[in-house]
Amino acid sequence: MSDGPPRRTQADVKRTSWPGWIWSVPIAALAVAGWLGIRALVQGGEKVTVTFDNAYGMKADDTSVTMRGLKIGSVSELTLAPDGRHIKAILKIDRAEQQYLRSGTRFYLHGAKPDIGDPSSLKGLISGPQIVMEPGPGKPAREFAGTDRAPALAPEHRPTVRYVVYLSGPAGELEPGAPVELLGFPVGTVIKTTLNYDPRTGSLTTPAEIALDPSQLGFVNGTPRSSSDAKTLVDTMLERLVAEGLRAQLTQDPPLVGSRKVKLDFVQDAPRATLMTENGATVIPAASSAGVDGIISKTDQIMAKINGLPIHETGEDVRKTVSQLRRLASSPKIRDTISHIDGAAAQADKTLQQVSPQIRALAAQLRETASEVESTARAANRTLGQGGGSQNDLPDTLRELTNTARSIRALADHLDEHPEELVQGRPGNAK
């Protein structure tokens, strides 16, 4: 048996198009990233830039953007503006609401400045403010200027009428955007307040520029759309109301702790006034500050009058009078006089007690005498009736006897009721 040459075997290797399982991981990652990108592109938000004066507690990825109470986006970034005086808030708005991003749309912060008069704004103390978007007309836009409170002005597509009011009181506390109310109804907003000094007269004035919304003034026949027609209509209305006593006042609601606002209301016994034009602006006459400011002002006036009274001199006069009365009361003569008066009064009481029984006995005797006189008169009458009398003047004597008896009886009754008059005399007879 011979050994043959060894046989060799060879594997049949086939190449495949799949690069290998190791590449499945990056491919899956790319697929997920692509899907997220497409989702972000389809469902992602529109970036909007809103400029505010201050951050007011806003936080990136935390502060929400709402419209009609529904969340439609959030703040994605907060940066300082190039001028260093403003804050730029980058908002991400849902694409479904991008149709409302127009030039007339307004953004404002709700809860940036909590106010007791607006309880809903107090939530900003805990959760921070939120940005509210108020849609408006115009062309598509992505940059806006926001405010720190809800605008009271009419939307930009409606006309407003501007006036100037010279307010008394702390007008510097009246912030732009503060409401203007007519009989308690919001009808406009404050544009700005300024401080003016006139070197010729040396006087300070605090004019406030306000804007009224004609659509909020209650015109029955509607409001005109043009600015000129609206101003004519509102001017005519205010001229009549001012003639009836309508005045502008700076007030605070709630008192002491609330924010300042301008109130248009009727003032009782207001001096006659009319609308005036000054430097091209129409001026609404104003009255003194209302509410607590007015009370404080009146209190200050009363205190000024009290301070002007001669209280010190009056006090000195009172002290002198009291001192003289004290010296007079401590005088020996006064004490002796009072002692004599007390003694005389005591003696009079003692005498009265002693004579009272005698006076009553005297009254009884007087009654007996009166009875005897009356008996004598009756007996004489009987005698005359029998024809025994011949004197012509006897009837007159009898009448006098009868009157005397009545007088004696009346005297007896009076002494019985007032025995002290024999000692003290009759009231009114003392000289």
From TrEMBL:
Subcellular location: Cell inner membrane
Transmembrane regions: 20-38
InterPro entries in the cross-refs: Mce/MlaD, PqiA-PqiB_transport
UniProt entry keywords in alphabetical sequence: Cell inner membrane, Cell membrane, Membrane, Transmembrane, Transmembrane helix
Keyword set includes Ribosomal protein: no
Pfam families in UniProt: MlaD
Organism domain of life: Bacteria
Domain Mce/MlaD: 45-109, 160-264
GO-annotated cellular components: plasma membrane
Protein name: Mce/MlaD domain-containing protein
